[in-house]
Amino acid sequence: MMCFELRIGREELWEKEECHREKAQSLNTLKIQPFPLPSLGPHDVRVRMKAVGICGSDVHYLKTMRCADFIGHECAGVIEELLEMQPLQGRKIPSLPYARTPPVHGSLANQVVHPADMCFKLPDNVSLEEGAMCEPLSVGVHACRRAEVGPETNVLVMGDGPIGLVTMLAARAFGVPRIVIVVVDVDDNRLSVSKQLGADGIVKVTTSLEDVGFEVEQIQKLKL
């Protein structure tokens, strides 16, 4: 999962008044094409998209083509038009929901129309790129709330992918003193990021039963 600005080397398309969307056209092929915006309803807003995250599901659909569709997951943009609720105009907003089933298309577009009550104002000190990451971060926050973690608990995170890492960050923000990440598919880059973000311990697990048993013993020794 990563975030990028909506430029893709074709800046002029993203500033046009006409709507363009990025579509998974065929295996490993994306195509920018015109797309008619729906009419603006009394409780809708038109949003100029500024940043969109690339989720693992986007990559999966691009590689498998289970369904050719307009992609785009977590995102952030600026409200450009609305019929009511005028105080919202010009505000930065994050994370427009994306249900990967037509007619609800993805957000990898220069413009989208969306219900105003599903848009949330970003604080002035939060960038649009950071705003686009609110959705994955919310997964980690929700997990910590469900688990009721805090200063009196330690946390074991299973996996060092983007969700695992944001869960670790959320746990730290909840006051968790000790966090250990269990890594299954060892990736040196992810290991490095895990360490940079403050993991107190990293346990590597391979696919052999002997190694799994050994690592379980190591986890027990950590006294979480």
TrEMBL record:
<dbReference type="InterPro" id="IPR011032">
    <property type="entry name" value="GroES-like_sf"/>
</dbReference>
<dbReference type="InterPro" id="IPR013154">
    <property type="entry name" value="ADH-like_N"/>
</dbReference>
<comment type="similarity">
    <text>Belongs to the zinc-containing alcohol dehydrogenase family.</text>
</comment>
<dbReference type="Pfam" id="PF08240">
    <property type="entry name" value="ADH_N"/>
</dbReference>
<feature type="domain" description="Alcohol dehydrogenase-like N-terminal">
    <location>
        <begin position="41"/>
        <end position="124"/>
    </location>
</feature>
<keyword id="KW-0560">Oxidoreductase</keyword>
<dbReference type="InterPro" id="IPR036291">
    <property type="entry name" value="NAD(P)-bd_dom_sf"/>
</dbReference>
<dbReference type="GO" id="GO:0046872">
    <property type="term" value="F:metal ion binding"/>
</dbReference>
<dbReference type="GO" id="GO:0016491">
    <property type="term" value="F:oxidoreductase activity"/>
</dbReference>
<protein>
    <recommendedName>
        <fullName>Alcohol dehydrogenase-like N-terminal domain-containing protein</fullName>
    </recommendedName>
</protein>
<keyword id="KW-0862">Zinc</keyword>
<keyword id="KW-0479">Metal-binding</keyword>
